[in-house]
Amino acid sequence: MFKSATMANLLNIPFLRTKGFGRPSFAVFVLFTLALCLLAVLQDFLQSNYNQSAFFLSESLLFRSFWILALPVVLVQVRLLRSKLPSRPTIQLPISIAGAVLLHLLLFSGLVNLLSALLFDHTYTFGRVFYYSITEDLYKCVLIYSLSAGIYRYWPVSKPKTFVPTSVLTIQDGRNYTALPIQEIIYIQAASPYIAIHTANKQYLHTASLKSILGELDENQFVRIHKSTIVNLGEVAGYQSRLNGDYDVRLKNGTELRLSRNYSSTFRQYFEATSA
User: Fold this and answer.
1) Are 76 and 141 in the same domain?
2) Could you cite one Gene Ontology molecular function of this protein (predicted)?
C-alpha cells in the first residue's frame, strides 16, 4: 500500500497533470482499485459457497492483490511511453503494453511467492504462480494496460490557462460607466450591495463582489487582507502587529486598514516578494 506522501510524489508526473489528473482523480483511481480487489474477494467467497468448498480469506486477499499492482505498473508504463523509445509510434504502444503485462505478472508472482513464504504454512512457487497468472489473468492485464496506453495516446491534453490581468477596469455605477486604470486603485472595500474602489482622488462605487473583482486583478499586486478589503501592494508602506493575531496595514497615503489573521500569511508572503 502506498503512503500518502508517495502518492503525492507520483502526481508530479507531467503526464498526469497535462491529462487533467489531479490528486482527487488519483485518489478515486486508488479507491476504485481497492474496490475491485474487495469485489474479487467477495466473488471468491460466493463461489466457494456455491461450490460448497472452504473459503480462506487470507489466500483470497493474497491472490487478489493482483489488482493493487496495477497502480505502480501503470506509472512505469507511462514512464516508458514518455521516454519516446522506440521512436516509431506504431510499435511504441504494443511494446509498452507487452512490457507492462510482463512486469505485472512477474511482480505478482514474486509477491505471492514472498508473502506465502513469510506468512503461510505452505509456499506458492514462483513458477506455479506465474503459470496460474498467465492462464487466469493474462487477458485482464492486456485490457488494463491497453486502456492506460490508449488514454495516454488519445486523451486530450488540457492546456494550462494563462491569466492576463486587465490594465483598465470598467466601473459600473448605475447607468454610468468609467474606465479606471488598474494602477490608480489603492484599495477596494465592500460597501454592500456594491464595492467601493478607492483611488488617490476619488471613490467609485462598482456593481460587483470582492471575489469577482479579485479574479480580474493581478494576484501579485492585489491581495485580500480582510473579508471586506483588497489592497494594492504597491501602495503599502508597512504593517504593524496588534498582538492578537491581527495587523494594521499602513498605506503610503496614511490610511490604515485592518489585516485579518486569516489572510496575514498570504499578505506577508506577497508583500515580502514585492519589497524584495
Assistant:
1) yes
2) DNA binding
The range of the structural domain enclosing residue 76 comes to: 4-154
Return the CA Rg of the chain.
30
CATH number at residue 224: 2.40.50.1020
Residue 166, phi then psi, degrees to nearest 5: -75, 150
Per the structure block, which three cell numbers stand in for 135?
Answer: 492462464
Give just the sign of the alpha carbon dihedral 103, 106, 111, 112.
Answer: positive
Residues 110 and 173 in one domain: no
Q: What is the pLDDT of residues 163-207, one digit of tens each?
A: 566 788 888 767 778 899 999 999 999 998 889 999 999 999 988
